[in-house]
Write a structure and sequence with these properties.
- By secondary structure, the protein is mainly α.
- It is 75% helix and 0% strand.
- The protein has 20 helices and no strands.
- It has helices at residues 3-9, 12-30, 33-48, 53-62, 64-78, 86-95, 98-108, 114-141, 143-151, 164-181, 189-208, 212-231, 235-255, 257-274, 283-298, 311-321, 337-358, 364-367, 370-382, 392-420.
- The longest helix is centred in the C-terminal third of the chain and has 29 residues, at 392-420.
- It is globular.
Length: 421
């Protein structure tokens, strides 16, 4: 048999293509956006290159995580029956294709080996920490100017031009995943040291740059871990972590000018909304006004929503009735993924989204995986303050993590059950 034929029939071609797609996805998230678009395509080719594709195809239909992701696409297609924004609808359908391609790749391509998964995870952790340190270096070059921007609610953008909200989420995930990956038996001493240093760098970057959303999800994850420790009767460790969680923000406030400016700016920002003052230059106050605006629309379209493609148009129309004194340029959309799902899809759309986000907790294999749990806690928390799926990088980050962690874990559990039978 020719070597090329053996490369295909052994499954190595499919596996290496999936590995290439995963690496391209990580690099794309960090720096090269074009690779993010190509990664699902390569992943789909990896699935088609599986020499046992016909045998493995039914596994896609038995993978609950993959089917829940596909249900989002089906609902979006059906919303075309009542949307009024056809151009936006077509664009959203195109954007939603990774919901099909990425789970398909992780269910039908030959699974990655443990070593390959370690390299992908380590690349994400080390790469995110490196971008964080480079951004931190930019801050240290001009701290006074950066602190002045922070005072009015602005954030220092990552050196690779990642928007601060998804970048804060990536830094928090790098912290948790770095600590988890260094415990794997495949990681040598050098890699373990590098992962620990990267986790520390990610946490340091979040605090010094005072990324409000990133710090929120970081402490939410640590609080969830403290609760887990207490539930397992590790009282000393749990209480110690709770004490640290109370002490660390106070120390950051006392020692970092950027954190003091962020806290003071946040309080002033909220007061602009509560006191009915001019909110045109204050992002958090505008978000609170957007939440009130979305609530008025949801009350009228609670079952199926206004259609996912129509949310922006509906918000703009509602602002014309009550604009809070905001200029049209500041009529922002709702910054909450749950409200966005409710606004666009009603209780049906919200139910589908909650099934995707929290459905893995019903599956024993994923529920016991700490990497999955931290991913869900971080994503569920950030979506209280941002419509992450409306941002292309936020959508790509979620789908990549969903496929790499959750879909792949359910498939591994299926293979384990089949091997035992």
């Amino acid at each position: 048999m020719p070597p090329s034929a053996s490369y295909y029939t052994s499954g190595r071609l499919s596996q290496h293509l999936l590995w290439l797609a995963a690496v391209a996805g990580v690099v794309g998230l960090l720096a090269a956006r074009s690779l993010v678009a190509l990664a699902p395509v390569v992943g789909t080719v990896a699935a088609l290159a599986n020499p046992h594709l016909r045998r493995d195809l039914p596994r896609y239909y038995r993978n609950g995580a993959a089917l829940r992701a596909a249900a989002l696409v089906v609902f979006l297609l059906l919303s075309g029956l009542y949307t009024s924004q056809w151009a936006v609808w077509r664009h959203e359908v195109f954007r939603s294709l990774p919901w099909l391609a990425v789970p398909l790749a992780f269910t039908l391509a030959v699974p990655l080996s443990r070593w390959q998964r370690l390299t992908v995870g380590s690349l994400f952790v080390l790469g995110t920490a490196a971008v964080g340190l480079a951004t931190l270096g930019r801050y240290l070059l001009h701290p006074a100017a950066a602190n002045a921007a922070i005072r009015i609610g602005h954030n220092l953008q990552a050196v690779t031009r990642i928007f601060h909200v998804p970048f804060g989420v990536m830094l928090a995930l790098a912290f948790f995943w770095g600590l988890l990956l260094r415990r794997t038996t495949l990681a040598g001493p050098l890699l373990r040291t590098a992962l620990l240093a990267a986790a520390a760098a990610a946490a340091l970057t979040l605090h010094v740059l005072a990324y409000r959303t990133g710090l929120l999800v970081l402490y939410a994850g640590l609080l969830a871990y403290a609760g887990w420790l207490l539930s397992r009767r590790h009282a000393l460790l749990g209480l110690g972590l709770l004490l640290l969680l109370g002490l660390a923000p106070w120390l950051a406030y006392q020692s970092l000018e950027s954190v003091r400016q962020r806290v003071q700016g946040t309080v002033w920002d909220v007061q602009k909304y509560t006191l009915g003052q001019d909110m045109n230059n204050y992002s958090l106050a505008q978000r609170l006004a957007a939440t009130e605006t979305a609530g008025a629309i949801i009350g009228q379209h609670w079952l199926l929503g206004v259609a996912p493609a129509d949310t922006h148009t509906a918000m703009q129309a509602q602002y014309q009735w009550h604009d809070f004194g905001l200029r049209p340029a500041n009529w922002v959309d709702v910054h909450n993924q749950y409200l966005e799902a409710l606004l666009g899809g009603g209780v049906v759309g919200l139910g589908l989204w909650l099934a995707v986000l929290f459905g893995p907790l019903l599956h024993p294999a994923t529920r016991r995986n700490p990497a999955v749990l931290f991913f869900i806690v971080v994503q569920a928390t950030v979506m209280l303050t941002a419509d992450m799926l409306s941002l292309q990088i936020g959508l790509n980050l979620f789908i990549f993590g969903y496929g790499f962690l959750i879909v792949a874990k359910e498939r591994a559990e299926q293979l384990s059950v089949n091997s035992e039978q």
